[in-house]
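Appendix C. Worked example: COP9 signalosome complex subunit 7-like isoform X1
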Amino acid sequence: MDIEQKQVEIIDLFVKRASVSKGDDLASILLEATSHSWLFAFSEILALPCVAELKGTTNSVYLDVLRLFAHGTWSDYKCNTGCISQLVPVQVLKLKLLTVLTLAEVNKVLPYDLLMAELDISNIRELEDFLINECMYAGIVRGKLDQLKRCFEVLAFFTFQLYDPCAFC
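Step 2, the predicted output written as structure tokens:
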């Protein structure tokens, strides 16, 4: 089963579960969705009326996190840490993966310096390990590392996640 088929199944599962939930139960499902290792698209969940009803409640932080995962990047999170609850490690990894995906959708050549700044990675070895072991292994992006030019050349990327830079502002 490829990543796109897996996405459809996982999205359907979370949409079904979320659509019949409210309050704390719904918040728990949103936390699970943003932490799920194979879920990279969140717009369908975000579009549910019951999710929108979280706005202004004690569970609105989960709505904010879901919006971040649907439309934001690691930089968006870093700029809004006072407004968004702290992410757990699996969510941090996921948001960084989504950031690479977002960048890959815009540029086919990603300079190492840009990637290191966007992902808060301090050295090239750590960046290359992240790109190979996390991004390419997860199937969200395929590409070539060019150590001489210090860039990642994007060959293909997963297309479920569409980034709208104004949606999270």
